[in-house]
Structure formats: C-alpha cells, structure tokens
Amino acid sequence: MILWHQHLIEYLPVELLYKQHKDCCVLRSQGWGLQRKNYKLVNYVFDNPYYYLYYYHCYIMDWINYHNTNIINININYVPFLTWYDLDFRGLKVGHHENDLIVDGPMEIGGLIYKEHDEKYMSKCLKILIEKDILIPEILNWLTK
User: Fold this and answer.
1) Predicted confidence (pLDDT) per residue in 22-72, tens digit
2) Closest CA to 26 of 94, 86, 113, 80
3) Domain boundaries along the sequence of the chain
4) Which residues make Cβ contacts (< 8 Å) with residue 50, sequence separation at least 6?
C-alpha cells in the first residue's frame, strides 16, 4: 500500500485512482489504529490527524469524479461512493464515529496535505511507478525540465 504523492494524483491512470480510493477506505475504516507493521509505506499517515487522510481521500475521489468514473460499478459490495465524503463515515463494518475526530483548524488551500510528501517521497513514488512500467508523459516531461 502506498499513498501517492499528492502532486502525482492528477496524472495517475484511473485504475490507480481506484486502487488509491480502496486503500484510503481501508485506512479510514479498519486500518485506522492497527499495528503500523501492516502499512509500512504509509506509517506517516498515523502520525497525522485523521482528517488529513479524510482530505486526501476526498482529493482522490474528486479526481475520480473528474474522470467521470463510477467506483460503485467496480465491485457491487462497495459502499455508495458519496458516503465516503462524510468525515465521520468509517465504512460499513465500523460505522460512524461522530465527534471523536477533532479538526484542529483549516488547511492551507492548494498546499500539500501531508508534509511528508516532499521531494524525497516524490522520488520514491516515481521509482515505484517506473518499476510498475507506468510511464506518464506529463510526469516524464516535468522530470526533464
């Protein structure tokens, strides 16, 4: 499991956006609070407030909507898509956790959600994409500038 660098999201193939949505669902539901060894590449998520993951997940879903895709059609067992836009929703098995997750202030508009998404993390993500033979022209152009 990996959460792609935020600046890569808009360039990812739709299939990777679906997978990223699924990973966010896992982390937001049963994954939140599990032993960190289960999610080695995303341990930093648990060092940040839960609502960061919520904002990141919304960002992913917004890009999926932009691509005019419908996650519900991938697997009939998926929770209806819009329910994940609810901050308190934690999946069908976990349910809602109302008022237990405090948002401690607004985030910078247009800024990175996770401070860990720095140049080093970007390089790690790009390496993984290249290893998977996912070559995104816009990113390759960006790298060669």
Assistant:
1) 999 888 887 676 655 566 778 888 888 888 999 999 999 888 888 765 555
2) 94
3) 6-143
4) 28, 32, 101
